[in-house]
TrEMBL record:
Keywords: Methyltransferase, Transferase. This is Methyltransferase domain-containing protein. GO terms for molecular function: methyltransferase activity. InterPro entries: Methyltransf_Zn-bd_dom_put, Methyltransf_Zn-bd_dom_put_sf, MeTrfase_14, SAM-dependent_MTases_sf. Residues 244-404 form the C-methyltransferase domain. It comes from the Bacteria. It comes from Hymenobacter gelipurpurascens. Residues 3-64 form the Methyltransferase putative zinc binding domain. GO terms for biological process: methylation. Pfam families: Methyltransf_13, Methyltransf_14, Methyltransf_23.
Length: 421
């Protein structure tokens, strides 16, 4: 097995989460009685380019099929994040009605709708037909396809080169990272800009965010590695921002290497130097991560078993990939330790989580059932969730997150009282 970027043989294991079903493959009740496919979830680090990557994978076309269940617009905080980005880009680069903005992995039009609101021509690219249908309702035309070098060549030949090419939280999802990045400059006008957002590998390691590891994520990225891959394909990273999203992400700005109108910022140089000082360009940095994962699992299982013995009810919020990685690595099956999970997306309600087979219900069931604890599985939106369900304090209910360490907390308007276990 070789590195997807440089071809070096992979030997160094970063994390091994056993065998799990794909984290977004929700099940119907009928499917509960059918065999469920599990795939190895083992992550390696390349000793040459330090790309952290999954080993054996499920085919991308099977993961991102016609009925993918993740819709970006069901998170209000994510919509706010997208709107702030659009406002910033409009102010910084001054796009007009003569510009074209293209987003790869545009999902349900959650972001491009705000450029559309400015009167900027937009085009989405996404492989899932159901999200594309929802995008169309927002005025966002979408090409239903995977972004590849071939598609970029085809679109460029059609005169669809773009002033701004956006690829948020998709670079980690592509099985052939070289082909994907090769296509970016082909679709970009000579002085165009590419922006990408992706979870920062530095935060994954520091905060033990192992639940961001799942089959839909083929790669786990540092600026050091992204900068190297981009340079090999004729792109230069000229700016970078650190974001709080997804537990800590990077927003990277890139241009054609031949475009000298956008100098490389001090932020790029500083972050590259910080990653070097942390040792991210050494194999040693990626060792000893597994014991930290196992400690999180042990503490979470101990919490659930304790509540079971005490007769307390535990439910979850968020039928997210993060939560499914956690639940499956903990070996949780059925409703014995977690009665149900609620989710705001109607596309997930009345289905079952992959692997654990926990039912997914409407959020109103928290008020109806009055559980003792609500585990916020997508911990990156814990503030949004705890504010929305603040009423659980009326019956003594509390919130829980498992990562980076087990926390039990109660929401108050000013702050959250947190107990570290």
């Amino acid at each position: 097995m070789n590195c997807r970027h440089c071809g070096t043989s992979l030997h160094h294991v970063f994390a091994d989460l056993g065998h799990c079903p794909p984290s977004n493959s929700m099940l119907t009740q009928k499917q509960l009685d059918e065999p469920e496919q599990h795939y190895p979830l083992k992550i390696y680090v390349c000793e040459s380019c330090f790309l952290v990557q999954i080993g054996e994978v499920k085919k991308a076309v099977e993961i991102f099929g016609d009925e993918y269940t993740y819709f970006s617009s069901y998170s209000t905080s994510w919509l706010q994040h997208a709107e702030r980005y659009v406002d910033m880009m409009m102010q910084r680069f001054g796009y007009t009605s003569d510009s074209l903005v293209v987003e790869v992995a545009s999902n349900d039009g959650y972001l491009l709708q705000y450029f559309h609101g400015y009167g900027i021509p937009v085009l989405g690219i996404d492989p899932t037909a159901n999200t594309a249908r929802m995008a169309a309702q927002r005025g966002v035309k979408t090409r239903v396809n995977f972004f590849t070098t071939n598609l970029a060549q085809e679109m460029a030949a059609e005169g669809q080169q773009t002033d701004l090419l956006i690829a948020n939280n998709v670079l980690a999802h592509v099985p052939d990272i070289n082909d994907f990045v090769t296509g970016l400059p082909l679709l970009l006008k000579p002085q165009g800009v590419v922006t990408l957002e992706f979870p920062h590998l530095l935060n994954l390691v520091q905060q033990c965010q192992f639940d961001t590891i799942y089959h839909e994520h083929f790669s786990y990225l540092s600026l050091t590695t992204v900068n190297r891959i981009f340079a090999s394909k004729g792109l230069t990273v000229f700016d970078v921002e650190e974001l709080p999203t997804h537990g800590g992400s990077l927003r990277v700005f890139a241009r054609h290497t031949a475009d000298d109108t956008k100098p490389v910022s001090g932020a790029v140089k500083e972050l590259l130097a910080r990653e070097r000082s942390e040792g991210m360009d050494t194999v040693a940095y990626y060792q000893n991560f597994q014991p930290r994962i196992d400690e999180v699992r042990a503490n979470f299982l101990e919490f659930l078993l304790k509540q079971k013995r005490l007769g307390r009810r535990v439910v979850g919020y968020g039928a997210a990939a993060k939560g499914n990685t956690l639940l499956n690595y903990c070996g949780i099956q059925g409703t014995d330790l977690m009665t149900f999970v609620v989710d705001a997306s109607p596309h997930k309600q009345n289905k079952y989580l992959p692997g654990s087979h926990i039912p997914v219900l409407h959020p109103d069931m928290i008020q109806v059932e009055r559980p003792d604890y609500v585990v916020v599985l997508p911990w990156n939106i814990r503030e949004e969730v705890s504010e929305r369900f603040a009423a659980i304090s009326e019956w003594g209910g509390q919130f829980v997150v498992a990562i980076p360490a087990l926390e039990i907390f109660s929401y108050t308007p000013a702050t959250a009282d947190v107990v570290h276990i």
